[in-house]
Each structure stands twice: as C-alpha cells, then as structure tokens.
Design brief:
This protein is mostly helical. The protein contains eleven helices and no strands.
Length: 224
C-alpha cells in the first residue's frame, strides 16, 4: 500500500476536522467567539456565549466530524479512487482488517488535529473533546462509554466542564488499553490524544488553581 494512500486519507480527515463549527455558528450571529468567554471555539464556550441549543448543535457537529472521518471517509476515498487508479487502489473492503484499522486510526487522529489546529483560524482551534468522542464512537464505543461516565460523574461532582473533560481524557486511554481488542496502534494513539487534550486545557488548569474557573450552572438563579 503506497504512502500516498495515508497522505490522502490524512489530508481529507484533517480538512473535515478543521471545519470550525463554533466559530461559524457564532459568526452567523455576528459574534467572534474567539473574543468572548474563554475565547475557545468549542462547544462549551459556544454554550456559554450562544446559549444551550447552539452549544449542543456545535457539540453534535464537532462529534460528527470525528465519527464521519473514521466510519466513512477511508472507504469513500478508496472506493472512489479504485476505479480510476486500479494499480494503486482497490476497494476498501478488500483490504485486510488490520490495514483498515490503521486507516481508521489515521483518519481519526487527523480529524482531531484539524479541529485543534484548524488552518482556517491560523491553526488555533478547539480542545478536541467532542471530535475525539466522535472518533471513539466509531473506533472503541465501550471505551468511550466509560470515558463518558467518568466525564459526567466528574462534572456532577465538581460542576467544572474542564475537570470532566480532563478526567475523560485520562479514562479513555486507560479503557482502550484494558478493553479488547488490544490494538497497540490504537492504544498508543489514544494515549497521545489524551495527553494532547490535557495540554489543550492548560488554561483551564491555571484557572482551576487560581479559583477563577467558571462553574456550570445547572439551575437558573431566581430573581427577586
């Protein structure tokens, strides 16, 4: 399999992941989301700035980017190219399962990189939590479920979205290593993505230490 195959899949996944959903939704309302709230283009800041419905929409689309990159993109690329370049490509379903998994992992990694370092915003993007969730919904759904439970528990206990996200970034690699199938490449990549997610939360960690991090409000304050 030529290296060109990996390059094409990686480039397509990066471009899909690089779509700055939160920025575009905010721009449609005349707001530059990079200048308000935490300045992040992800779902949490979108929910804070634009309201819960828009925040949920951004969350869904960002997750969909990761899921589509893994579940559909490699096969679409191979099956489109195979009839035109039969000497280099063949239908994706004809490739060995181990090779298919490699392409799924490559597509997932570059979708997250596209979200985190989008070329459309001078390589400044989100933190990759929602997009990573979409990737692992396709690659390792049981590990994702464990990470989601950890996220919700941490969020309910602390009311900090950042604490929930960081906790999930630790739980997901641990679950991938423990649960079958034990794929070395997937385990290594998940660990790297988890470290990257925690690094992207360095500002949140600083605010948590300083006591200035915003808590999630589950109920609206009553007015008197």
């Amino acid at each position: 399999m030529p290296i060109l195959s990996y390059v094409i899949v990686a480039a397509a996944a990066y471009l899909l992941g690089s779509i700055p959903t939160g920025f575009l939704v905010a721009q449609a309302k005349g707001i530059d989301i990079r200048t308000v709230g935490s300045g992040n283009i992800g779902a949490t800041n979108a929910m804070r700035v634009l309201g819960r419905p828009m925040g949920i929409f951004v969350l869904f689309i960002d997750a969909l980017k990761g899921y589509a990159a893994c579940a559909f993109l490699p096969s679409l690329i191979f099956n489109w190219l195979a009839p035109h370049f039969s000497g280099l490509f063949r239908p994706f379903q004809d490739e060995p399962l181990e090779l298919q998994i490699r392409f799924y992992v490559v597509a997932g990694v570059f979708a997250v990189l596209g979200h985190n370092y989008t070329c459309w915003l001078k390589f400044k993007g989100g933190k990759g939590i929602a997009t990573s969730a979409g990737v692992y919904l396709a690659l390792a759904p049981w590990a994702l479920l464990i990470a989601l439970v950890v996220f919700l528990v941490a969020l309910l206990v602390t009311r900090y979205v950042s604490v929930g996200s960081i906790s999930a970034a630790v739980a997901l690699p641990a679950a991938v290593w423990i649960l079958p199938p034990h794929n070395l490449l997937l385990g290594i990549v998940t660990t790297v993505l988890g470290v990257m997610a925690i690094y992207k939360h360095k500002g949140n960690l600083q605010r948590l230490i300083a006591g200035t991090e915003n808590r999630l409000q589950f109920k609206r304050k009553e007015t008197t």
